[in-house]
């Protein structure tokens, strides 16, 4: 498929993931080379209140997805939320608790890579942050240069190395904060 970046942008829509997307999500996941997300896992993510699950579509075709989790405090690995904060952006105000999001996964179909779709997906999570201390964190494998460059291009900064985060592989902790 030969798509130009401009064509992809013109038709690109980002919406919440739905059950009907499952076959296409699994297909895209298989293209990652190291699929960790089964149909069951996608399904569970959609049924869990603390997740924000997005898909990017061009026309009627799902071309990518991104999944983030609301986490309590700044626990990188995330625990279960005592109370789900819901999927709406929290109201701005001094009483609002800080929002921490952990980016769990992002993937784009092979034919649609390098058209700004991954960046568009990841940038959507920024709307959930309001306060200066709110942040989005991601642990990215040290060998996965595309995701590191994607996050850098959308304003994430590497904070530190997480030793053996992926079994024997180190990860970089990358963080996005509204400045
Ligand atoms: C990582 C991934 C999501 C990137 O999606 P994408 O839609 O191709 O990324 P974008 O087009 O939005 O890229 C934005 C910027 O990121 C950087 N970038 C993304 N992929 C890159 C690559 N393969 N090589 C170099 N830079 C890259 C570039 O700076 C790019 O901007 P540019 O195209 O103007 O140079 C995609 O390669 C993918 O699905 N990989 C497999 C799944 C995966 O590894 N996910 C991460 C799990 S931790």
Can you describe this structure in just a few lines?
It contains five helices and seven strands. The protein is an alpha+beta fold and 179 residues long. The relative contact order is 0.15.
Give a verbal description of the structure.
By secondary structure, this protein is an alpha+beta fold. The protein has a domain at 3-80 and 97-132: 3-Layer(aba) Sandwich (Aminopeptidase), CATH 3.40.630. The chain is 23% helix and 32% strand. It is built from 5 helices and 7 strands; from the N terminus they run αβααβββαβαββ. The chain has helices spanning 5-11, 22-30, 39-47, 117-124, 145-153; strands at residues 12-16, 51-58, 61-71, 100-108, 135-141, 157-166, 169-176. It has a 7-stranded mixed sheet, sandwiched between helices. Helix 4 links the parallel strand 4 and strand 5 (135-141). The longest helix is centred in the first third of the chain and has 9 residues, at 22-30. The chain is globular and about 40 Å long. The relative contact order is 0.15. Residues 76-88 have low confidence and may be disordered. It binds coenzyme A.
Provide key terms for this protein.
179 residues, alpha+beta, Aminopeptidase, seven-stranded mixed β-sheet, 32% strand, binds coenzyme A
């Amino acid at each position: 498929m030969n798509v130009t970046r401009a064509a992809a942008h013109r038709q690109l829509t980002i919406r919440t993931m739905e059950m009907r997307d499952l076959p296409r999500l699994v297909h895209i996941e298989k293209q990652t080379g190291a699929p960790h997300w089964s149909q069951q896992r996608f399904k569970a993510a959609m049924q869990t209140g603390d997740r924000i699950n997005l898909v990017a579509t061009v026309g009627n075709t799902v071309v990518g997805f991104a999944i983030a989790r609301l986490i309590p405090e700044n626990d990188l690995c995330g625990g279960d939320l005592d109370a789900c904060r819901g999927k709406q952006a929290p109201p701005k105000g001094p009483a609002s608790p800080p929002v921490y999001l952990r980016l769990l996964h992002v993937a784009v179909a092979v034919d649609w890579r390098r058209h700004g779709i991954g960046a568009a997906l990841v940038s959507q999570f920024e709307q959930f942050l309001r306060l200066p201390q709110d942040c989005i964190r991601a642990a990215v494998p040290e060998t996965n240069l595309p995701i590191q460059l994607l996050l850098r291009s959308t304003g994430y900064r590497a904070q530190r190395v997480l030793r053996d985060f992926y079994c024997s592989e180190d990860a970089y902790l990358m963080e996005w904060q509204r400045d």
